[in-house]
Each structure stands twice: as C-alpha cells, then as structure tokens.
Amino acid sequence: MIPDELNEMAEEHSQKQNSFAHRIHVCAAAGCRSSGGEKVASAFEDEIKERGQTEKIAVKRTGCMGLCAEGPMVIVYPDETIYGKVSPADVAEIIDSLDGSPVERLSLDSEMPFFSEQTQVVLENAGRTEPESLEDYIVAEGYSGLITAITEMTPDEVVNEMTKSGLRGRGGGGFPTGLKWSTVAKADGDKKYVVCNADEGDPGAFMDRSVLESDPHRIIEGMAIAAYAVGADHGYVYLRAEYPLAIERLKKAIRQAKRAGFLGTEICDTQFDFSIEIRLGAGAFVCGEETALMASIEGRRGQPRPRPPYPANYGLWGFPTLINNVETLGNVPTILRKGGEWFASIGTDDSKGTKVFALAGRIVNTGLVEVPMGITLREIIFDIGGGIPGGGNFKALQTGGPSGGCIPAQYLDMPVDYGSLAKVGSIMGSGGMIVMDDSSCMVDVAKYFMDFCRTESCGKCIPCRAGTPQMHKILTKITNGEATHRDLDILKDLCDLVENTSLCGLGQTSANPVKSTLKYFEEEYIAHIEQGECPAGVCKFKRTGEVINGCSS
Amino acid sequence: MVAHLNRKRRDPVRTRRKVKTLKINGLDVSGTDEQTILEVARENDISIPTLCTLEGLSNIGACRICLVEVEGARRLLPACATLIDEGMVVKTKTPRVVEYRRKLVELLFAEKNHYCAVCVSNGHCELQQLAEDLGVDHIRYPYVYPELNVDATHAELGVDHNRCVLCQRCVRVCDELEGAHTWDMMDRGENTRVVTDMHQNWGESKTCTECGKCVQVCPTGALFKKGSAVGELEKETEFLPYLKVMREEQ
Ligand SMILES: Cc1cc2nc3c(=O)[nH]c(=O)nc-3n(C[C@H](O)[C@H](O)[C@H](O)COP(=O)(O)O)c2cc1C
Ligand code: SF4
Ligand code: FES
C-alpha cells in the first residue's frame, strides 16, 4: 500500500463511519467479555435490526476501556456517553435514549478523574477503534508512522528519533530504547531479528494483554518500524498461550497487514521486507526473561544464560536480536507520527512519556490506566483509582510484582518515575499496582511473592533454586508464629545471598518484596515472632503456635 | 608448498586487539579475547573453585560457585562464563565471594541428601572436595532431604537423584560430545530433575548409546556404574578436551 491509497481508504472508511447517527462501542476485551460484554453487543445488534435502524446505528466491538470494575462498559459516540455494568436487559432503554438524554441509572461521569486525568498514548485507540478492523486503525492514523519511516527516513534517523524520545523499556528493566536499537543496528550479522516480548507473567498484570487485544496493529507497526531501524527482516511475537483472545486478534491483524502490504516483501514499494511469526509460551514466568525467551523460541528448554553476550550481539540462533516489550513497541508508532520531541515533552527528566498501570487490590476503580510519568502515587490511587473501598486506611502499594516492593504511606506524594521508585526500594516493573489497606499482613504479602518465585524458579542456579524455598519456609514459620530471631537473621542473610549470586533477574530480585517489607514494616515481623500475633489479624495462631486459619500454605 | 606463503597478511589492528592484559588478584596476566577469566586464572596457577563447568563442555554459568569480583561491574561475574577484557581487574578471593561460595555449597547440602558415608563417590567427590576446600564444617540451613528416586533400570548404569546437584554436565556431554541428547532437564525450581529421553526409565531409553560419558563427568555419586561399592567410584574426565577438539575437526 502506498500513502495515496492509504488516504483514500481512510477517507472512505471514515465517511462510512460518519454516516451513522450513533455509534455504540461495546468493550470486547477479556475483562468485559468475562462479565458478559459479548452478550450485550449481540443484544444491541439484534435490537437495532429489529427496529430496522441498521443504517442509522452502528455497533462496534472495541478494545479495553479501562474501567474493568464497571464492566461490561459501553460508550456511545458521538456524544461520548459512558455506561457501566450494562446488561442485555438495558439495551432497549439505551437505544430509546439515543436522541434524547442519557440513561441516568447506568451512565458514568465522563469528567470523573478516572477518565479525565489519563494521558493515552499506547492506549489511544483502546475503546475507540475496532481491534479487528484494519480500516479503523488506519482512520486513527495507523501505519502512517511506518510509512514515514520507510519512505522518508534512513534507519539511523529512525533510531535517532527513538533516542530523542527518551523512551525506556516498559518490560521492567527500563533500559533506554534508543540505545538498545542503535546497539542492534550497529551489530554485525548476516541476519537480525526483532522479538516482541508478550509473555507478561507478573501476577495481576494485564497491560500487554490489553494492548494486544485492543490494538494489535499497533504492535505490528511498532515491530516493523523497529525492524527497519535495526536492519531485521523477521520478527517473533512471544505470546503466552493463556491469552487466547490476544492470539486470535494478533493472528487476524497479521493476516490483514500482509494482505494490505504492511508485512511481506517490498513493503510500500520500498526495499524493506519484514514478516512476523507468533510463538506461544507455555506459561513459565521465567520465559519472559530475554535469554530464556530466546531459548524457548529456538525450541530449547526455557532457562536463562549468563549475559554478556547480550541479545543485541548474540541473540536468536546467535544473530543480533532486538527484544522489546509490548508496551515499549506500542509507543513507537505514535513517536514516529508525532516526533520524539513531542514524546519527551511528557513526563519527567529521567522518565519520558506515559506508563500503563493495572490497578488491583483494595481500590475502587480496578482496571487499566495510562498516566504521564511524574504523576504522584496519591493521584493514581485516590483520584483516578477512587481511593479505598469501605473507608479502609491505605497501608502500602505493591509495584513491580515479584521483583518489586511495597511502598508505605509516607511516600504517597512521590512522583512515579524509574528513579524515585527505585530509591524507595521498589521498581517501576511492568505496571502492576496492588493497593493494600489495614487488612493486609505484610509478612503474608512477602510470603505470597516468595512462593511465586520459588515455584517459578527455573532451577538452573543454586541460589534461586535452593534459596527461595529456604526463604519461603522461614516466612511460613513467621506467619505460623513459630519463628525465632535467628530465623529472621537467616532470612536477611539469604536475601543478600540470593540477590547477589543468582544468574538472572528472577533470583536477583526475588528478595525485593521481603527487603521492602522488612524496611518499612519490620515491627510486623517482630510482632509475629515475639508476641505470636499478627497485627493485621490475617495470620491466626493457637497458643501452641499452630495455625487455625489463613496463612496456611 | 610452504603454508605460510599462501596466507594473507593479517590485519595488524585486529591482531593486536586479540591479546588482552588484565590483573587477577594483583597479578598482571594476559590471554586472548576468546578466553574466560577461569581459563586465564588457571594458566597462571590461580585457582577458582568451580562445580558446573568442565573443560571440553560449553559453559553455562549455572552453579555460581566461581563468582568473582570485577572492578566496575555492577554484579559478581561467573569466571567460567565471562570472557576477559582489556584492563579488567579481577579479584577471586575477597571475603565476600568466599563467604558466598560457602553458603551456596551449604544450600546444596541442605537441598538434598548428600550423606557421604554411604556414597559410591566418597573420597572422590567434587562436591565433597569443594566443601572441604571452602571450609564448610556445618550447614546453617535446615535440611530439606526430600525422598527422591533412584533409577536402576539400566543394566550397567544408574542415577540417584538424591545426590544430583543439577550441574547439567551429563546433559551437555551427551548432547555436545556424544551427540545422543538422551539427558535433559525436567520441571522447574526445587523439582528440577535430570531425565533420560522424555522421562522414560533409563533402561528403556531408545537414544542412550551406553557410552558412559555421563557417569564420568558427574561430579558426585548421582550417576554411577552399578556394582560400585562405597567410595569405589573414581571418575575420569581428562579425555573430554581431546574429544572436543576431534569433534570440531571432523
Ligand atoms: C524473570 C523475568 C521475567 C520477565 N518477564 C518479562 C515479561 O513478561 N515481559 C517483558 O516484556 N519483559 C520481561 N522481562 C524483561 C525482559 O528480560 C527484557 O528485559 C524486556 O523484554 C526488554 O524489553 P524492554 O527493553 O522493551 O523493556 C522479564 C525479566 C525477568 C528477569
Ligand atoms: S535466578 Fe532462578 S530463574 Fe534465574 S537462572 Fe537462576 S534458577 Fe533460573
Ligand atoms: S563453575 Fe562457573 S557457574 Fe558453575
């Protein structure tokens, strides 16, 4: 496809869209689907057909609208009326109201901070376009970034644009994306690969799934731009098999992109060739680690290997390989379209752009939000997130999953950026945020994450394989009221050992939840040990120290 | 014809860059850019304790026993899997790494049953030697001692999972030198085991050539020749580097 054809197609499609007086967008992402979104969408279609209004009202199945707690979500355009918890029984009433005023009982305030305080880049199309429609993506200026890159820019210029944007990897490490691209671009190799890491294994995280389900073409475009910049002609998306909807939509999008000539040979009449294959992950958390991921793509056991050599020099089958996270690549098309400087104008000095977070735990608005870097934790939790339900007191925020830490209330006004989060003993991570109130026992939280690391350890290196079970056992002893101070000392010592001697990030960061809870809530550990009591009332001991309920894993 | 007349003159810049000089424990040493810290250290009689690595097999950096301090590096690096670099300053015996090594060995002893007195490898065991060299005289962690299988289905060879330290030497020798790839790893975390074929009994393996290399490279008594009594099994690994060179020349 060449630019003129693209414009024509966009023009035609948007005229068709505008010919409808009303467009009803029903969220068809996994969250709303599980609360009955698909039934609502078909109910709308049936009702409209029955009324003979198919020329006047369109129904669209879109990507995630973010407020999963209110699912199934519906947004009616052009008025942008937002409805939550819609059931098939409400459909007729909503259609009746289309030319009048909205259905009060179901409508949500579009001025509420949840919607108004977000800045959407990666999720700019989520909820607005139909993920299964290439035309929708093109109307939203999709693929124009790729076309600009391959027809008007040299690969170096594309890399420079990324460097200028200041984008850092969203997969957890926060490595500067421009620097990574330029390393791969400069690496010697007859062949090069681009890999999109969509293994998303952090418990509670679903940012990447949402992007893939809501806007799969964005990832294809991002990968193609990356491939052009580094000189690759083949790409893999390593996608976990637990995401069937994302797989289905991405497969469909790849077919559409091939047909339209955005993938394949001589893309847009240039010399640039690029194809994409999907590889399914079988659910091992460690396969998200880049060297394990590559081993898995090559058909070997998914276990990490020492770095250096880094994938940029020695990647898939020994060839230079660029590995980026879904959300990282999701930023790329917009950066190319609007420029690196525009992107760098959002956020803080050390962290540019926006970040998608999955809000979970004791928070009113659970769901997905995209906010500018530098926003405070308080704004995310209390404005956008709507605070804590039932009037509980905020106790801590867990970020970064099993590799992250717990941040106590005194840091609520801290800006969210890579440096600040690291300074208080947590990490940005991939974007999971779990809010905890007084009803959470911090030792229990640490135990939960340690259990996760223990079972997800690949078993290759001694400290992680044999050390995490030892730490988990001590944490269990503490929550059972059976531990002594000596156990606590051994626990601290193991934290240091496992962190400093493990082969890969899994082991190296597995102690973070323990370390951060010890740093801010050591008195809770002590209370379990000395008084045999759990301040949060989660762990219940008998006099003998035996557990009667809770904490009994 | 005289061979060297036929050769193209080598690029002087590249030739010069191939040799690297570095400091290990204050000693000035040198090596080529294809050598690891461990190789250069050994050439210079500096010993670094190891467990998973074995000359002739690929280096996987699994056991972490050989971790050393390298100035300017963010983390400790495995000497067996880190190439030397110009100007590197390596320290192999700082109190910190020595202490870490000791704790790693203690974790191994706590993880499984390594009761030496009844082991075929008693007295010739690399793990036992390592513990002795590192001065491990007690285990600070509680013993886990899961009860694991012994696969004695093979006519001459056997595997006792209670003694396995998961160094993956058997997996590598079988794949890289014998070319059979009978051994592999199964499951993960503390449940990780070495397996023959797709977790079939060794005796029923269709791929095993019965060459016995795996037994020779196993550092402990996990892989054994049947009929060995306590302390009787001595292992031979000197043949590996030669075999590797021969394979590469084929
Ligand atoms: C144990 C472990 C699990 C990981 N899981 C993921 C994952 O699920 N998704 C991801 O993008 N990165 C994951 N990473 C980070 C990747 O190794 C890699 O740094 C990342 O994909 C690079 O992309 P980025 O630069 O765009 O962030 C994981 C790392 C470790 C150590
Ligand atoms: S740190 Fe854990 S996950 Fe990583 S290589 Fe070691 S055992 Fe495997
Ligand atoms: S000997 Fe180097 S990591 Fe095992």
Can you offer a commentary on this structure?
- The complex is a heterodimer of chains A (553) and B (250).
- Chain A is of the alpha/beta class.
- Chain A is 43% helix and 15% strand.
- Chain A folds into four domains: 114 residues, Glutaredoxin (3-Layer(aba) Sandwich), CATH 3.40.30.10; 204 residues, 3-Layer(aba) Sandwich (Rossmann fold); 84 residues, Ubiquitin-like (UB roll) (Roll), CATH 3.10.20.600; 108 residues, NADH-ubiquinone oxidoreductase 51kDa subunit, iron-sulphur binding domain (de novo design (two linked rop proteins), Up-down Bundle), CATH 1.20.1440.
- Chain A has a five-stranded mixed beta sheet, with helices on one face. In chain A, strands 11-10-14-12-13 form a five-stranded mixed beta sheet.
- In chain A, a hairpin with a 5-residue loop joins strand 10 and strand 11.
- The longest helix of chain A is centred in the last third of the chain and has 20 residues.
- Chain A is globular and about 75 Å long.
- Chain B is an alpha+beta fold and 250 residues long.
- Chain B folds into two domains: 74 residues, Roll (Ubiquitin-like (UB roll)), CATH 3.10.20; 140 residues, Alpha-Beta Plaits, CATH 3.30.70.20.
- In chain B, the strands form three sheets. A five-stranded mixed beta sheet of chain B has the order 2-1-5-3-4.
- Classes of the chains: A alpha/beta (553), B alpha+beta (250).
- The structure holds flavin mononucleotide (FMN), iron/sulfur cluster and FE2/S2 (inorganic) cluster.
- The site of flavin mononucleotide has 23 residues of chain A, from strand 9 and helix 21.
- FE2/S2 (inorganic) cluster (FES) binds next to loops of chain B.
